[in-house]
Specification:
There is one protein chain. Strand 6 (94-102), helix 4 (106-116) and strand 7 form a beta-alpha-beta unit. Helix 2 packs across helix 3 (47-54). This protein has helices at residues 4-7, 15-32, 47-54, 106-116, 176-179; strands spanning 8-13, 37-43, 61-63, 66-71, 77-83, 94-102, 122-130, 142-146, 154-155, 171-174. Helix content is 25%, strand content 32%. The strands form two sheets. Strands 2, 3, 4, 5, 6, 7 and 8 form a seven-stranded mixed β-sheet that branches. It has a three-stranded antiparallel β-sheet with strand order 1-10-9. The protein binds inosinic acid (IMP) and magnesium ion. The site of magnesium ion has 3 residues, from strand 6. Residues 45, 99-100 line the site of magnesium ion (MG).
Length: 181
């Protein structure tokens, strides 16, 4: 495996800043809901964030997973392929769908619509980064750590390039020579 130093051009969000914002968000979510919550991390990118976020939510939490793969090495968006075999009944429950990075919002909208069929009381999304002014998901209520448009290809903290680098504890720009070759 390449070391972090050999693949990261520059750090965009440090581990400390990510964890600090997660604590604040956890408090906010805890005060927004009275009842139990169902967290549904989107595999695989939403896993790191969901794991840290749930530690700061005071409500009772149940976890289920949904899986989607929406981009390939070339970053071309193809139709997301959804895998959801519910182990928890979400009917009339409050659901938070947890993702790493909402780019065009296409993936998220498809997953959101997929879950709606199960008639939850509410669905919100929580993502580490959401690009601003995203018309596809303007109707969906969102929690985020950053509402920004990054100026490069990000990896770390769930974000991958060719399935690698999800384990880096911070988020940084991948060196250009690694994804342009
Ligand atoms: P969307 O459907 O356009 O919102 O994006 C789907 C997915 O593309 C995101 O959840 C990410 O997993 C992936 N993606 C988009 N931009 C980046 C990036 O800069 N780094 C890593 N993954 C990315
Ligand atoms: Mg993703």
């Amino acid at each position: 495996m390449g070391t972090e130093n050999s693949v990261i051009e520059s750090i965009e969000y440090t581990e400390e800043e990510i964890q600090k914002r997660i604590k604040i968000l956890g408090k906010q979510i805890s005060s927004d809901y009275d009842d139990e919550l169902i967290l549904i991390p989107i595999l695989k990118g939403g896993l790191n964030f969901a794991y840290d976020l749930m530690k700061h939510i005071e409500n009772d939490i149940s976890i289920d997973f949904i899986k989607s793969k929406s981009y390939s090495l070339s970053r071309k968006i193809t139709s997301p392929n959804i895998q959801y075999n519910p182990s928890i009944n979400i009917k009339d429950k409050d659901v938070i769908l947890v993702d790493d990075f909402v780019d065009t919002g296409e993936t998220l909208l498809k997953l959101y619509s997929h879950l709606k069929v199960y008639e939850p009381r509410s669905i919100k999304i929580a993502a580490v980064i959401i690009k601003p002014d995203n018309p596809k998901i303007s109707q969906i209520e969102k929690y985020f750590l950053w509402n920004e448009k990054p100026k490069g290809f990000l990896v770390g903290y769930g974000l991958d390039y060719d399935e690698k680098y999800r384990n880096i504890p911070y988020i940084g720009f991948l060196k250009k020579e690694l994804f342009e070759k």
